[in-house]
Amino acid sequence: MPQKATFEDLDILQTVKVIPADYFPAKFPMHWHTQVEMIYVSLEADQDATLSVNVNQDIYTLHKGDILFIWPGELHEILPNTRNSFYGIQFSPSLINNRPEFSGKYNLFCHEHLLSFQENKDTAQELLGIFDEITKQNASSDAYKGVEMLIGIYQFLIAFSRYIEVHAQSMLVSSKLLNTETIQKIHGACSYITKNCTNALTLDSVSNFAGFSPYYFSRTFKQVTGFAFTEYLSIQRIRHAQQLLSDTALSITEIAFQSGFKSIPTFNRAFKQFEGYSPSEFKELYSNQ
Length: 289
Fold this sequence. Notes:
The protein is 49% helix and 15% strand. It is an alpha+beta fold.
């Protein structure tokens, strides 16, 4: 069984949710949810303001201008704090999964947790400006505020994607492992895998799509993404399954096959390996809310 934690039932019909400073919890017990969450310390906070959050048993301490990213299914806990200009924004991962521009970078996204203002000032300022605008729209009475907030999330995803691309590419190019064109082709393959993960994809078919030999593609894919091709494909199928598991009308068997798995044991084993709990545990926690 996974670590005992509360499932937080966020309204999946509300695509974007804002937690303003006045409502930010002074503490919150270990929990998880299926939304993407950003927690940040406003630039208007006191100079000595700090917020500590436990994510998957790693403690992240945020200072003024810092941003913390919490990805779907990650256990996290808000440790006691003074509620000093702390904010939260949550949104459905479908906003990432449904756009090929972002879906292929999802695994790269999930490697990022703490974005330090001191170490990445330009990127942090850009993202904080977007977050502040989303928060303002949330408090407004504008009939179109929901659309404006949604636009804000896409602005964040564009800016964050560019940061991830530059960060990841600079490390690979500076080490002289790969050139920019090759990295971009691998990112294109990632998007292709995510979009078609429920189909019978093979190493040969995807490497052919990318224009590489299977051997070169397999080795290069691992360098760029940090995952073997089969691991990456399984993760995309598991993410697809997580979305279906929230629909209690579907059985686990139906979900497994609709997500591209060929057998229930393979589905259960992969889900447990990458998520730390079984599909039935996930489904039970979700359906009990």
